[in-house]
Amino acid sequence: MDKSTAAAAQQRVAGYRRRFDTRFEAYFDSLAESLDTPPLSRFTPRCLELLRDLSLRGGKRLRVALLYEAARLVTGEQVPGLEEAALSIELLQTHGLVHDDIIDDSPVRRGGPSTYYAYRREFPGDDGTALGLAVLAGDLASFLSMHVLLGADAPAERKQAMLEVQSRAGAETVAGQIADLERDFEALPSEDLLHTVCEYKTTRYSILAPLRLGLLAAGEHLAGHDERLRRYATPAGISGQMRDDYLDLFGDEDVTGKSPGSDIRSGRRSYAVRAVLAAATAAERSLLESALGDPGCTAETIGRIRRIAREHGVDDALRAAMLRHAQEAAGEASGWRAHWREEAVAFFEGLPLWNVQRAH
Question: Contact, 257 vs 250, CB < 8 A?
Answer without folding.
Answer: no
